[in-house]
Amino acid sequence: MSAPAITNDVADRTEDDPATLLGISAGKRLLDDSRRARAMSWVMAVMLFLTVLAGALGLGTMGAARSLDRQLAGRLTVQLVGARDDAVSALADRLRAMPEVGAVRPVPRAELARLLEPWLGDAGLDADLPMPAMIDVDLHDPGDAAFDAVAGRVRAAAPQARVDRNAAWLAPVRSFVVSLAWLAGGLVLLMAGATTAIVLLTARAGLDTHRDTIEVLHMLGSTDIQVARLFQRRIALDTLIGGAVGTVCALATVAVIGTRIADLDSALTSGIGLSAVDWALLAGLPLLFALLAMAAARIAVVRALRQVL
Fold it and tell me: Of 47, 65, 282, 301, which has the maximum CB count within 10 A?
């Protein structure tokens, strides 16, 4: 075979895959399997571990906020001080007859005593202890018109009665839960930005390390896009492997924390949990970060090659 033929054959093989000419495997490419590559995987594992924890916090708190909305929307509590049992029953019957009302439940005294037990102890069980009567009311429509109608009926029957919206006195709790969700979302975005910065630094370091090799590839006809592809494959692989390890550890941690929360058996924590969709979103974060790393590496390498080489 003549020299021009050999040159043309080399150029053709280089254009298809420049790393083939150098004897570099498709998995390693220009970024060798060194301590730097292993460090990249460990860094990505830590980043995904923290990201999944933040994402679980955000999804769980948003679920808790939705659960509070479902439980408290349209729910009222009527308090009657010094009312007799027959007066409480009569008022409950009047409320059941209203079209705005979906359900009415007078709270038994034993249940009230159980709620007051942490503060009063066994004294709450004393029959002579004055305790207000309470009626839970669920409205069909949580709007102001239904609330005003029920409140007017209650005050007409018992002027000293007090009508409270459950959503109103739990509004600070809901606001705090929503704030936690937004904070968690901000942490996820911050982790994504930090991951992009790490990828950019890694790509630039790889360019500096293999500058001579890249110049040879350019002389053999390789384009900037082909060289960038070598970097993005390896960076994406490191991100995916490290991210998978970090995600598995984070999901195990979330599962343990979820079990501990379930053991609390508290009304405020009952809505904190992850649905099947939430688990799927968290499990897909390594793939999402790998795609992000590929895009960042491609942009960084192509821009650097056009400026320097």
Answer: 301
Both structure tokens of 141: 């429509």
Q: Which residue has 């056009």 as its token pair?
A: 306
What distance in Å separates the CA atoms of residue 235 and residue 256, rounded to the nearest whole number? 31
pLDDT tier at 260, thresholds 50, 70, 90: confident
- Enumerate residues 6+ apart whose C-beta is below 8 A from 173: 68, 268
Question: What DSSP assignment string belongs to 38-56?
Answer: HHHHHHHHHHHHHHHHHHH
Query: How far is the CA of 190 from the CAs of 40, 65, 197, 198, in angstroms?
Result: 18, 23, 11, 12
Instruction: Classify residue 83 as left (phi > 0), alpha (psi -120 to 50) or beta.
Output: beta
DSSP helix/strand/coil, 304: helix
- 106 DSSP β-pair partners: 135
Q: Which residues pair with 261 in a beta bridge?
A: none
- List of domains in the chain: 3-69+172-308 (no CATH), 82-159 (3.30.70)
DSSP string, 189-251: HHHHHHHHHHHHHHHHHHHHHTHHHHHHHHHTT--HHHHHHHHHHHHHHHHHHHHHHHHHHHH
Give CA torsion, residues 93, 95, 99, 104, to 10 deg. Answer: -90
Segment 32-58, tens digit of pLDDT: 545 555 678 888 899 999 999 999 999
Residue 231: pLDDT over 70: yes
Question: How many whole angstroms separate alpha carbon 292 and alpha carbon 253?
Answer: 25
